[in-house]
Structure formats: C-alpha cells, structure tokens
Structure prediction request, 286 residues.
Amino acid sequence: MSAIHTVAVLGAGTMGHGIAQICAMAGCDVRLFDVNEKASSSGTERVRANLDKGMARGKVTEEERDSALARISIATVIADAVHGVDLVIEAAPELVELKAKIFAEVDGAAPDHAILASNTSSLSIGEIAGAVSDASRFVGMHFFNPVHIMKLVEVVWGPETSDETRDAAVAFALRLGKQPIVVRDAPGFASSRLGIVLGMEAIRMVEQRVASPEDIDKAMELGYRHPMGPLRLTDLVGLDIRLGIAEYLHATLQSDAFEPPALLRSMVAEGRLGKKSGRGFYDWTE
Prediction:
C-alpha cells in the first residue's frame, strides 16, 4: 500500500474540519468537500481560528499555520475531491444510508490504491463497506472532538478489512500524533459503547433529581479522574448526536443500558442540543 500524501475529507462540519486540519498539519495535501459549499468555506475558517488559537498559546508558529492552510483546498464535487488521493475520510452525519451512498459514489472515482475510511462513532463498518467493490481497503477511523486536541483514534477493522489496510490506518494515526487503538467491528466499538452507557445513566440521574448536572460531572472528574464529566461532554458532542447513537446501540445490542431517557428525547425535541444551540445541560451563552 503506497504512502499517504493526499487526503480527501468528506464533510466539513464539527469533525471534518478538524480532521482536515490535522492532516494538513502532518504535511498532507487535503481536499475538503461538503455538500453545502458554504459549510466548506466555514470549515476552513474554523481551521484558521483553531490555528490562530494555537499561535496565541505558542503551540503553532505562523509558518506552520500558513503552510497548513495552504495545503487545504475546497472541492465542490466528490469526484474531484477523491481523484488521485491516497486516503478518503468520510465525516458525514451518523446515518448508515447516507454514508453508504457517499462511498458508492467514491468507489467509482477514487484510485484503486486509496484507503477508504469512515469516521463513524458507532455504525457497522461492514455494512457501510458493502457500498464499495473492494471492502478489503475499507476501515473505520473514529476521531474525537475536538480533533486537533483529542489524542485517541479508534481504528476499526471490518469483516473484510485487510491487515495491510488496518496497519496503514494505524501508521497514519501515529503520523498525525494520535494514539490509535484497534477495535473489532462491533456496535459502538469501544469508546461509544462505554461512553453512551455512562452518558445515559448520568441523564437518568438528572431526570430522577439524584444530583445537579454540575455535581454529577464533578463526581466523575474528581472521583474517577475523567477530564470532563458525561453531561458536559454530551453538551459538546450534541444531544441529538448522542440520542442517535443511543437509539442505534439500543436497537442493535438489545440492552436497556442504552435506552435513551425521556429527558434526553424531550431536550432534543425542544432544540436544547448543547453547545451548538447555546443550551443543553449547561448554559453556553454566558
């Protein structure tokens, strides 16, 4: 499998722009695509803002910032984004039908040597890989938000993922400065399966008035050394995103531990989605 020099990132939202940033920082030429052209432009601006913050903290030089930004280009058509690339990373919303549709289009346009990776946090890699002609080059690469800060990458090998593809994904994650773990293709993988159980139980505790969100989070931060409590994390990820993952895991694993609490459903219905809407379990407008 050839070295990775050029990367296509499909989806310029919360995860996509961060993935584009770290790939560019690692010296790759990056093509950033989103079905919404405005989102692509917004994605590059968010990369610039992240790098500017890095400069302010002395972690990124002006030269590094400018070089990274120069390596990111916007593609308006998937075929243009993936033409001639070595790696495709999809960062679309957590809908298996959408991801499969994207990869069906990628399959006919990307070169045969390119690794195809999904950033899904819980969906079946094998099911998504069914959309491509050669599933041996398909792998999961689950990054964490914020991508430019969080160290973990879950490399998920599907039923047909080759050892060569898996090893190349691990090597690339290391090149990005991440710490990869290798996980079999099972619902929720390792991180989402554990994280969603904790998150759903924390929400049930709020629902039952066991304690305030602040105190529940503090219990995990101070008592178990979690860098962030499960409710604040839910706000950052997005309550709608967590609801979708919980519903998927509840349906596939048939475990009540993943059943979304009524409080979560009502908050999503009210538009209280966390940081992105200004309010979730915390007030983010202050």
